[in-house]
Design goal:
The protein has one domain. The chain has nine helices and no strands. Helix 5 packs antiparallel against helix 6, helix 6 packs parallel to helix 9 and helix 8 packs antiparallel against helix 9. The relative contact order is 0.16.
Length: 208
């Protein structure tokens, strides 16, 4: 939304309705949390796509300890899980499943942490905007009643408040929904990929 075209400065926009500062604070929380989650997904818990192939190369060469060392040098829960699985008896299925389940739960908890904030923000921000809309319309009717005469200038402030609050609430909701869908779909994909890699590694170790 172009504030200059509307003839409102940033300070005037904040003073227009108490709803606007609330939505501004909510949007800051959403953006800050999205950056933190992106850092976790891409750096702290980034999926090591080439790691499994490197492990297989070491195992084919009979270098099991080198494969373990490789995993231990990597960061992230997936690498930790592979290092642990490699050091267990491949014929002890129960121990392998227990270890895998623990690391899967650990990965899921790290990736899903505070993702619900985006869903909550996408739900409540339109309602907050709607509150601003109602207050703006009430203000417009109040100004109209106080003036005693009609005209666009009488209700302009109230209508402006209503429209801006609506637009701000929708904007925050759209942004939050995008982040929520991205992180939930990414979480599902990463867990499924981890399942596949763990099964491939376990199957390869049994065949050896």
């Amino acid at each position: 939304m172009n504030m200059t075209a509307m003839g409102l400065s940033f300070e005037q926009l904040l003073k227009l309705s108490f709803v606007i500062p609330v939505l501004l604070v909510l949007s800051i929380f959403v953006l800050a949390q999205s950056l933190e989650r992106l850092w976790t997904y891409l750096v702290l818990e980034g999926m090591p796509y080439s790691l499994l192939g490197q492990i297989f190369k070491h195992l084919q060469a009979g270098e099991k300890q080198e494969a373990v060392d490789l995993c231990q040098r990597k960061s992230g829960t997936v690498a930790e899980a592979f290092a642990d699985l490699l050091q267990r008896d491949p014929n002890d299925t129960d121990a392998l499943m227990e270890s895998y389940s623990i690391y899967r739960q650990k990965l899921q908890m790290r990736l899903s942490r505070r993702v619900g904030l985006f869903g909550t923000a996408s739900f409540i921000s339109p309602l907050i905007g709607l509150l601003g809309t109602v207050l703006g319309v009430m203000r417009a009717f109040h100004d109209l009643a106080a003036a005693g005469t009609g005209g666009p200038s009488v209700v302009a402030a109230g209508i402006s408040e209503a429209l801006i609050a609506t637009a701000a609430g929708i904007g925050v909701a759209v942004l939050s929904s995008i982040f929520y869908n991205y992180f939930t779909m990414s979480l599902r994909y990463r867990l499924n990929l981890f399942d596949l890699w763990a099964m491939q590694l376990a199957d390869w170790l049994k065949k050896r």
